[in-house]
Specification:
There is one protein chain. By secondary structure, the protein is an alpha+beta fold. 36% of the residues lie in helices and 10% in strands. It has 15 helices and 16 strands. The chain has helices at 2-18, 121-131, 183-200, 223-238, 299-318, 323-342, 364-378, 381-396, 417-423, 428-449, 464-482, 488-498, 525-530, 545-549, 586-599; strands spanning 27-30, 35-36, 43-48, 55-60, 66-71, 73-74, 84-89, 97-103, 106-107, 111-113, 155-157, 181-182, 246-249, 277-280, 543-544, 570-571. The strands form four sheets. Strands 2, 4, 5, 8, 9 and 10 form a six-stranded mixed sheet that branches. Strands 1-3-7-6 form a four-stranded antiparallel sheet, with no helix packed on it. The protein is globular, with a radius of gyration of 25 Å.
């Protein structure tokens, strides 16, 4: 009898669900979770498995009343998956306040409209960089004694000295959720933070709360420049002589599971938690295990590091900071640049037991950057001539912007900042040429954006969020160069994607917005072993369904909280097991500081 009743109950339940009206299907509403400035374009996306009829409303959370009603317009771009997509345009609403969107019975998350809606979020990104520090980590310190990891970095390979020579390469930043250190990414992160200081220091957007070691005492320098100096100090160590440069500490022998930096179980031949390998940049293919890089020179690293050093000289001089340190940086910039001239080509990252590495294979953009910054620092015309020559050469190298796929970090650092650095130093016709270089890339991305309902201009390869930040940066720099705002709405669409206007309705920065939906279960040892959130970190971001399905060693730790909205075309998981989409990266975060500060408020 009980079995019959159970069967009858199951049949009734199935009939109820099968007879439900399709009108009850969920409508998902996605917008920028942080919010909007009053005067800017404001567009959200609604999508559902069934047609959405009629209009949407904007509801004032204080009064509960609708302040705007407008049609939900079917999106004309090709859809992702089986969903139908609609644009919700509420740009005419400019009154500051807190609101949510409503379509039928379905409501969105709350957002703000305000002149200061972005506040000091850009400074959270600087805090994340402090959390990534290697050697002396203030985030992990629990006492005045500090937290000092990897104090034996490292022992040399491929250098002019005997292999396994111990040299001091402590410092720098852990690259991502792992604990490797790369000059490839560290040089870019350092230069990009100095660039953010150059652009926004006069607007007083960066605070001086801590000293250069992230201690509690102010030191008269913004925490942003203190963090940049952490990177500069490490580059100085990697450049121990005028013709020497090291480029990587440790390799994928690091990837042995969750481990705290102070208790690093990885073994490079000298025992666990001991010395780690330090790779010399010799411009030749390298690899101590099965896999070899395809290196041809050192100009990418030397040029980019030279740019960082020359920028440091200029910024320290402009702000009247340590004159001796500024001169030290200028000397290093000249030496590094000469190394790049002598050894054109690119040095790639090294792997040991897996095929994954940083595949950068461009270098003329980095030499352009170094030359442009050295010209600004010295006024010596041969640097200007070089910068113009390298700018023309860089434009002949393929960029990711016109491609739908690329190898991991192939076109690093994803945006050619050198064109911006050079722009004010050249005459009118070449100014037009540099602006055209930027426009070409932006318009290639715009063409890609028209092919999807979210108007996203970046391809969904590994670290797609880094590409999104690079695209935003290129538009911001282009606007500053030319005053041309024709791409501004496209810029907003990329920003909004990163901050919640995406299929999953999540920000791509940890801890942003406060109290909102953002990555929590990230692929880092710090999170997995301490459950402490490190706010401000930009995660890798979504990948194509094809990449996700072919990912090696990917095991989800929990059921997919976004299963209902996964479309199969583009995939993202807030899950520590998804190392391809949910691992915060040091360089992606550093690159995003400028973008976030662009909208941020002063102190």
């Amino acid at each position: 009898m009980n079995a019959r009743l159970s069967l009858l109950f199951l049949i009734v339940i199935l009939l109820v669900f099968s007879c439900q009206s399709p009108d009850t299907a969920a409508v998902f509403i996605r917008h920028n979770l942080v919010g909007y400035l009053p005067e800017e374009t404001k567009e959200a996306i609604a999508f559902s498995s069934i047609p959405v009829q009629g209009s949407f409303s904007v509801i004032d959370t204080a009064s509960g009343e609708s302040v705007l009603t407008a049609p939900a317009k079917p999106d004309k771009a090709p859809a992702w998956g089986d969903f139908l997509y609609y644009t919700l345009d509420f740009s005419s609403l400019k009154t500051p306040g807190a609101y949510y969107l409503q379509v039928g019975e379905w409501k969105s998350a709350v957002f703000q409209i305000s002149d200061s809606v972005y506040g000091q979020y850009h400074e959270l990104l600087v805090e994340f960089m402090q959390q990534q520090r290697c050697g002396d980590n203030p985030f992990l310190s629990s006492s005045d004694e500090g937290y000092h990891c990897h104090s034996l970095d490292g022992k040399t390979m491929y250098g002019p000295m005997p292999d396994s020579t111990h040299m001091d390469f402590t410092g720098g930043w852990h690259d991502a959720g792992d604990q490797l250190k790369y000059l490839i990414t560290g040089s870019n992160a350092t230069a990009r933070m100095i660039l953010a200081s150059e652009l926004y220091h006069m607007e007083d957007k960066f605070s001086d709360v801590l000293d250069e070691n992230a201690g509690a005492d102010r030191n008269g320098t913004s925490d942003l420049l203190d963090e940049a100096k952490w990177g500069l100090d490490w580059i100085h160590k990697l450049h121990p002589a005028p013709d020497q440069l090291f480029h990587q500490i440790a390799d994928d022998r690091d990837h042995i599971g969750w481990k705290m930096p102070l208790e690093d179980k990885s073994d490079y031949g000298w025992g666990p938690n001991s010395y780690r390998v330090a790779y010399f940049a010799d411009g030749k293919p390298q690899g101590l295990g099965k896999y070899k890089s395809q290196a041809t020179g050192v100009a990418n690293l030397a040029g980019r590091s030279a740019a960082a050093m020359a920028m440091a000289y200029s910024e320290w001089t402009r702000l009247r900071l340590d004159e001796t340190y500024a001169k030290k940086c200028l000397k290093a910039a000249k030496e590094l640049y000469q190394m790049g001239l002598r050894q054109p080509g690119f040095q790639q990252g090294n792997s040991f037991s897996a095929p994954y590495r940083y595949n950068e294979d461009t270098w003329t953009d980095d030499m352009e950057w170094g030359a442009a910054e050295l010209y600004k620092a010295t006024g010596e015309k041969h640097y200007l001539d070089d910068a113009i020559r390298f700018a023309r050469l860089a434009n002949t190298q393929t960029s990711w912007m016109g491609l739908d796929t690329a190898e991991h970090y192939r076109y690093y650092p994803f945006v050619n900042v050198a064109h911006y650095s050079l722009y004010k130093s050249v005459d009118g016709p070449f100014k037009d040429t540099l602006a055209m270089y930027y426009r070409t890339g932006i318009e290639q991305c715009m063409a890609r954006g028209k092919k999807n309902p979210f108007n996203v201009g970046a391809p969904f390869i590994w670290c797609s969020n880094n590409l999104m930040v690079a695209l935003c940066t290129q538009i911001i720099l282009y606007e500053d160069m030319t005053g041309d705002l024709q791409y501004h709405d496209f810029l907003l669409a990329q920003r909004d994607w990163l901050l919640g206007r995406n299929p999953w309705g999540t920000s791509m920065f940890t801890g942003i917005p406060t109290g909102g939906e953002y990555p929590v279960d990230v692929h880092t040892s710090v999170w997995m072993m301490t459950k402490r959130e490190a706010p401000g970190g930009l995660v890798d971001g979504p990948v194509s369904g094809a990449i996700h399905r072919n990912q090696k060693g990917l095991v989800m730790a929990e059921p997919d909280e976004f299963a209902e909205v996964q479309n199969g075309v583009v995939v993202y998981h807030d899950d520590n097991g998804d190392y391809a989409t949910n691992e915060p990266t040091m360089d992606g975060t550093a690159g995003a500081i400028l973008m976030m500060a662009y909208w941020g408020a002063g102190k």
